[in-house]
């Protein structure tokens, strides 16, 4: 496939909150999201986050949907003379999931959550997306992230290759706008303010995919799209 790959080789104003006893603060620059890691045993500044390593598994590629007609898609990546296109047919047997905008009232626990962001030099994260999916509460936390569905974390549909899961776990409950997230490192709390970039995963059909959306899919060993592994869709504006 000749398409340029955005593979895994590849504001509201910031809100700061520093209650006593909380030593790691993640601040969302694009919307009202604040996360706290609780660890009373660490008195000083938190260590720098470890380098992101891609978990074993197939590589992926993301596209803009230029045209969508009943499952027949025209996908493009790049722009101008650097653009490449792919015609792809999404059939009824292709697993598909869509990350739709959601309100706090729609978040019913337990939920898998992947906080998608970009690390910066001051050990905070610019948060771009909070991707939620219905969960069971018994998800395995041992991996690099908890998949939303089909091996997708949520960052695969991003236009920015720097984005990655910076927090991943299971939301066990909400108290008001504060979610309590069980992660491999312990319990975090997430405060969702107005304008938080919340998306909730649901199963989709080919007819749900529209021009202007972003679509990610996995590649097989031959470098071609493997539709048996499903597609992830981020709806476009409007």
Question: What gross morphology would you assign?
Answer: globular
Give the strand content.
35-45%
- The N- and C-terminal alpha carbons lie at a distance of 31 Å
Q: What are the low-pLDDT stretches, counting only 5+ consecutive residues below 50?
A: 1-31, 39-56
- Which class of secondary structure composition applies to the elements? mainly beta
Secondary-structure element series: EEEEEEEEEEEEEE
Order of strands, main sheet, comes to 1-2-11-10-9-7-8-12-6-14-13-3-4-5
Q: So how many helices?
A: 0
Mean pLDDT: 80
What report would you give on this structure?
By secondary structure, this protein is mainly beta. Helices cover 0% and strands 42% of the residues. The chain has strands spanning 22-27, 33-38, 60-69, 72-77, 84-89, 96-101, 111-119, 125-134, 164-175, 178-183, 186-192, 198-203, 214-218, 231-234. A 14-stranded mixed sheet has the order 1-2-11-10-9-7-8-12-6-14-13-3-4-5, with no helix packed on it.
